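Supplementary Methods. Inverse-folding protocol.

Structures were first reduced to a discrete structure-token string of length 304. This string, shown here, constituted the complete conditioning input.
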């Protein structure tokens, strides 16, 4: 083989090796649950007004907001892209709302939001690149947080991610009530939330396009597993995970369902240990309490 041919062969081989290595590196990108957008000066009211204005300018529609406890406000928005992605995936409606939080921690404000790439991987919604770009433009993107090492998209995928043996996967939902049709199911959930059954309060509702599916954001105000009780245990780091709230109820056709707390809590607090002062054993009553409250809201009997 001549020198020139050998050089060409080695060049092609090198390019191929670089391409393979680049793809492998991309596959190993490790995602974290939350993104810190900014740490603005000023008051909570000023920060909230600026956040809402910026989100609107990027094409997001506000679905609802609430303050789960003093010093924290969660704004839930959606968009055409987000609803389309949610409508195309099995139980994707759980991810139709993008949660943004403004939190006062030790006198300093944090604007944070759920990482769309993390959520998209976990809920089967793809990487939500357009949503990520618009949120970054609206709110900034200082750093990802919520896990020391993060997870790859492959590790987060439905049917793959669970905290440990015995914990649920994404598609292992709780079906809380069944009705003959979508409209009846919607009416019963609206009635239960309006009555504040079992300490539950409606934060938002998002209807998916061209599908009999709607997702409700539900605040847990009283009873076992309130927002404050759970966050007292799980929200322990300097950067706050307020944007993990609120919880969701999904009405799909005639079924009313929710993600199991054993999946949802561990997805947004993946590094939390089972035991210890801030371990999951400290909130063992939460899954059952939440399921009972959501069942009361759905106006149905627990499905055996």
């Amino acid at each position: 083989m001549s020198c020139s041919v050998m050089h060409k062969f080695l060049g092609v081989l090198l390019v191929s090796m670089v391409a393979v290595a680049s793809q492998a590196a991309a596959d190993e990108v490790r995602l974290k649950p939350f993104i810190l957008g900014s740490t603005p000066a000023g008051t909570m009211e000023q920060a909230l007004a600026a956040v809402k204005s910026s989100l609107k300018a990027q094409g997001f529609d506000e679905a609802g907001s609430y303050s789960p406890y003093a010093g924290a406000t969660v704004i839930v928005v959606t968009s055409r892209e987000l609803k389309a992605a949610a409508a195309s995936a099995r139980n994707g409606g759980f991810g139709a709302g993008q949660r943004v939080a403004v939190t006062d921690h030790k006198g300093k404000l944090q604007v944070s939001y759920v990482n769309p790439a993390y959520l998209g991987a976990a809920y089967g919604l793809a990487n939500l690149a357009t949503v990520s770009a618009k949120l970054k433009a609206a709110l900034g993107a200082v750093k990802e947080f919520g896990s020391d090492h993060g997870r790859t998209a492959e590790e987060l995928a439905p049917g793959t991610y669970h905290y440990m043996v015995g914990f649920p996967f994404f598609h292992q939902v709780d079906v809380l009530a069944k009705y003959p049709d979508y409209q009846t199911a919607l009416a019963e959930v609206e009635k239960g939330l309006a009555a504040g059954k079992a300490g539950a309060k409606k934060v938002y509702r998002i209807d998916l396009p061209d599908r009999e599916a709607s997702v409700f954001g539900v605040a847990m105000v009283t009873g076992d597993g309130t927002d404050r009780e759970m966050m007292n245990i799980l929200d322990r780091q300097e950067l706050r995970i307020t944007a993990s709230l609120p919880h969701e109820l999904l009405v799909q056709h005639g079924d009313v369902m929710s993600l199991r707390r054993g999946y949802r809590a561990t997805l947004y607090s993946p590094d939390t240990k089972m035991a210890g002062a801030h371990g999951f054993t400290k909130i063992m009553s939460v899954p059952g309490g939440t399921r009972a409250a959501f069942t009361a809201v759905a106006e149905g009997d627990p499905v055996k």
